[in-house]
Design goal:
Blueprint lengths: L10 H4 L19 H15 L4 E6 L5 H11 L4 E6 L6 H11 L10 H17 L3 E6 L7 H10 L3 E2 L2 E2 L1 E7 L1 H7 L5 H5 L1 E7 L4 H14 L12 H8 L3 H17 L7 H9 L16
Parallel strand pairs: 1-6, 1-7, 2-3, 3-6
Antiparallel strand pairs: 4-5
Protein name: AAA family ATPase
Pfam family, one: AAA_22
GO molecular function: ATP hydrolysis activity
Length: 287
């Protein structure tokens, strides 16, 4: 087996400047599939038109957080951004989350009315300074219908005809199901832009893999195109799962001193049970 520094993994072997398939969201590796381009367009549209609410949904690992991070880079300095990654709790707790997100100091013993009043005063102050507020909530599927309705109420705070707060909610498919409930029809009516990120097709997986290999300094040939159908089958086209199995396959190819990942390399990863992605457990693609 080749010897290498622990932080290098297989990079020197393949000529990479960095690992191409890490599991952490990285806007530098963002691949503009048709769906990702449309999702980002809807995010931009929501921002440009100052839509009260923008909703983006998709499966776990579909690339929603990476899109969010990329969007944050494009927002101008005129916006105050509040980011909540995993809000939970009731109405009063939600207001505390929002105040924290915008770095507003408050007394934790305040009543709901006092918290609401403090947030409203802050929103009016931001507006008076010619700025706007954008509240981004990631993992929105963890909200309750009651807190979703409370968020809608926050978008009712306005000055003349101007919205003081824009909401961007990003979550898993169950969030889309939640907001379609009859009790949340007023919330749904305030959604000005939305998109659902679906899984990638086999062709898109091939383009995605080649893209990430290239960004990392590779040629794109480090994973044989013949291995792509199997990669797509066992990952269902979910980007994070594609990253997971490709990373493991590159480790296997490096360990065997192979110049590229082949279909057999991927099968070896599956046979050894080191890939724990959800789709691999539903079928055995090596049989």
């Amino acid at each position: 087996m080749n010897k290498t520094a622990p932080t290098d993994i297989y990079n020197t072997h393949f000529g990479f400047s960095e690992r191409p398939f890490t599991l952490l969201p990285d806007p530098e590796f963002l691949f503009w599939s048709r769906d990702h381009r449309l999702a980002f367009t809807m995010l931009e549209y929501g921002m440009m038109t100052r839509a009260p609410i923008t909703v983006i949904t998709g499966e776990v690992g579909a690339g929603k957080t990476t899109l969010l991070q990329y969007m944050l880079r494009t927002l101008g300095e005129e916006a105050d951004i509040g980011l909540i990654s995993n809000a939970q709790g009731g109405r009063g707790e939600l207001l505390q989350w929002v105040l924290h997100a915008f770095s507003v100091q408050f007394d934790p013993n305040f009543s709901y009315v006092q918290l609401f009043q403090q947030l409203q005063e802050h929103m009016l102050d931001v507006y008076a300074r010619g700025r706007r507020m954008v509240l981004i909530i990631d993992e929105a599927q963890n909200l309750t219908p009651e807190t979703v309705e409370e968020l809608r109420m926050l978008t009712n705070i306005n000055s003349n005809k101007d919205e003081l707060l824009q909401l961007v909610l990003v979550g898993q498919p169950e969030f889309r199901d939640m907001i379609r409930q009859p009790g949340l029809r007023q919330f749904l009516q305030r959604v000005g832009a939305s998109f659902h990120l679906g899984p990638m097709s086999p062709q898109t997986v091939a383009e995605y893999v080649a893209h990430r290999l290239g960004v990392a300094g590779g040629t794109g040939a480090e994973i044989d195109p013949a291995a792509i159908p199997l990669i797509h089958e066992v990952t269902g086209g979910v980007p994070r799962l594609v990253n997971q199995i490709c990373d493991l396959a590159l480790v296997y190819a490096f360990s065997a001193d192979q110049p590229a990942v082949t279909e057999q390399t991927v099968r070896s990863v599956l046979d050894d049970g080191v890939y724990l992605g959800g789709f691999a457990s539903e079928r055995n693609p090596t049989q």
